[in-house]
Write a structure and sequence with these properties.
elongated, diguanylate cyclase, single chain, about 160 residues, EC 2.7.7.65, two-stranded antiparallel ribbon, Diguanylate_Cyclase, GGDEF_dom, about 50% helix, alpha+beta, Alpha-Beta Plaits
Length: about 160
Amino acid sequence: MAQDLFSLTQIRHLMRVEFSRAQRYSYPLGGLVIRVDGIEKVRVGHGFEAADDVVAQVTDMLVARTRACDHLGRLVDDRLVAVLPHTDSSGAQALGARLVQAAHELEVTVAGQKLPVTVSVGSTCFEDSNTLFFDALVDAADAAFEQAVAAGGDRVVHVSPAEVA
């Protein structure tokens, strides 16, 4: 549910805190950026409320498939973010792949019509001191997300912070 999500301001603060902890204590920190593919078409064809319902169902799916220690938030443009403490690259990518698959299993009905749901997921990870800056981690997650969308969506793409530095 939407109440399970941190606001943009809150999630950015938590991301900075977790990044500082990961640097200090040398543990990996995974991150995902998730968005429903074609949400703009739902909004245009069925209205804002229908689009919000679809995002809410994807949010519920995300909450159900993440740990209590993970931080979930909503960014601008209907993007969701997951901050994953103690999660390495392979773990972040695996969760992203599970989310892509779980979206296929959602049964979303809008105006009596069943809509297929797919998501694009950008994955990144701070590990082995691959970046010194929080912003590089955010940029990597955004770059991975954009690559997933550009490749047609319905997939997870991983980008290391070192690749965008």
